Amino acid sequence: MWEPDPAWHPVTGGTGTSTVGVWRTERDGQALVVKRLAVPTPYDPPEYAERHHFAYWRREADVAISGVVDATPGLRTAPLDVAEDDEGITLTREWVEDAALNGLYVAHALGRFAGVDLGRRKWLAVGQLRDRLSRVERRGGWPTLARTTIADAADRLWSRRETLLRELDALPQVAQHGDPAAQNLPGRSGDDVVAIDWGTLGVGPVGADLGLFLQNAREDAEPLLDAYLMGLPDGLATPEEAALGMRVSAAYTALSRAEWALARVAGGEGALAGKYRHPAVAPYLRTLQRQFPLVEALL
Ligand SMILES: Nc1ncnc2c1ncn2[C@@H]1O[C@H](COP(=O)(O)OP(=O)(O)O)[C@@H](O)[C@H]1O
Ligand SMILES: [Mg+2]
């Protein structure tokens, strides 16, 4: 059975769906990160084995083996070693120093990366937002948000989801990292961001990556969109198209995450409103509050 080396130090995070764990170690003075992915079992959701699904278990290894983002403009990967066995895959990557990147710099890089041609590869993630919302739908939509003061807006956006997903399908489809949270974009090399956690690399509507980055960004949507547009190669998409992709991605992500956080504390004693300041909930509600103008723009 595969087991982590007892000398490795666990890293917090490591919450990817097929991630067994993430550890920090070193070899010859070089700091390294080891990430272990598990082969899906019959008890895992079937989508772990579906190559187009965002939760496809071994995409990060396939990305590394292909070399497709080794030298791309905007975002690229740090070198990664891949070792496979019967139970899973061990990925070993150089530790990427945190360059404390400015959000505008990152948004510009996301725009440049959108112009990359990833080629036709069977394991690229497609339809990520649609698949995420199907998952939410199977869990009953956003029932906890219906008990809050944003119930009306949430309900209207939930009923508009098919219309908006179709509008996204009609936008230019571009390269996207798929999980561009600041923690996954730590490093800098020349003009580019050195990104990690490439397990959701794929193709999606222009602006979608920016809508995800917005969730925890310190800067406001407008200047970030301007920076993204400056990075976007000429002729790829109009500013209106990028803005729509960003808004829809940001709004549905913020609402789904707020629902998820609230639902975790909604059981038990006491009124729901009394739990808004719970440390497991408050950050998600703050994010939602900041994204609310984007939600309203869609109604
Ligand atoms: N190469 C790396 N350099 C620096 N930090 C890393 C590296 N790989 C992982 N980490 C840290 O470990 C966390 C989890 O790793 P990640 O690959 O993002 O796993 P997950 O898919 O579970 O999110 C990251 O958010 C980051 O803080
Ligand atoms: Mg991550």
Question: What order do the helices and strands come in, and which of them pair?
Answer:
Elements: E1 9-10, E2 19-27, E3 30-38, H1 59-66, E4 75-77, E5 80-84, E6 88-94, H2 103-114, E7 125-126, H3 128-138, H4 151-159, H5 161-169, E8 173-176, E9 187-189, E10 192-195, E11 202-205, H6 208-213, H7 221-231, H8 239-266, H9 282-297
The protein binds adenosine-5'-diphosphate and magnesium ion.
The CATH architecture category of the domain at 9-94 equals: 2-Layer Sandwich
As a percent range, the share of helical residues equals 25-40%
Order of helices and strands: EEEHEEEHEHHHEEEEHHHH
Our count of helices gives 9
Question: What is the end-to-end distance?
Answer: 53 Å
What spatial form do the alpha-carbon principal axes imply?
globular
Oligomer: single chain
List low-pLDDT spans. none
Radius of gyration, CA atoms, in whole angstroms: 19 Å
Kindly estimate the percentage of residues that lie in beta strands according to DSSP.
15-25%
